[in-house]
Design a protein that fits this description.
3 helices, alpha/beta
């Protein structure tokens, strides 16, 4: 059954949280697709994943590249899954895809400081429950660790 994990971001932007979660997914041998809301955002994220750490980078590509199917992490604007990912990250209010049941895990990151993002996350939570998915809610504790709250 597909798990849908809701990550409530507070005091940290997607650019800070996403690379670590992507690294953990790759360590587990999972291919990943990240769906965002705009070309500008995905281009900025593409550049960020090459430079976010001094000692390395996160191997990835974008939906525009001819070798998209071979990428361990693929950035996209659509619901397609050209790299056969088992994990899908949704940012910027990207919708849960129609084929959500095809994934082992869907991770929805939302900005807890943005009322519209909170409203959208609540709608996605209700949708996940209605569709019968196992949904969990995660929030950072004071020590900077993700804690399952629901």
């Amino acid at each position: 059954m597909t798990e849908i994990l809701f990550y409530h971001l507070q005091r940290q932007p997607v650019e800070k949280v996403l690379p670590t979660l992507l690294e953990k997914s790759l360590e587990r041998g999972w291919k990943v697709v990240v769906q965002g809301g705009s070309e500008e955002r995905m281009e900025a994220l593409d550049a960020h994943l090459w430079t976010y750490r001094d000692e390395g980078f996160l191997p990835h590509g974008t939906w525009r590249e001819p070798e998209a199917a071979a990428q361990p992490v693929l950035l996209t604007l659509t619901e397609n899954n050209p790299n056969g990912a088992s994990v899908r990250f949704l940012i910027d209010g990207a919708p849960v895809p129609a084929d959500a049941a095809a994934y082992a895990r869907i991770v929805l990151l939302f900005d807890g400081e943005d009322e519209d993002a909170l409203k959208t996350a609540r709608e996605r939570w209700n949708e996940a429950k209605t569709r019968g998915f196992e949904a969990t809610y995660w929030q950072l504790d004071d020590g900077g660790r993700w804690v399952k709250k629901a």
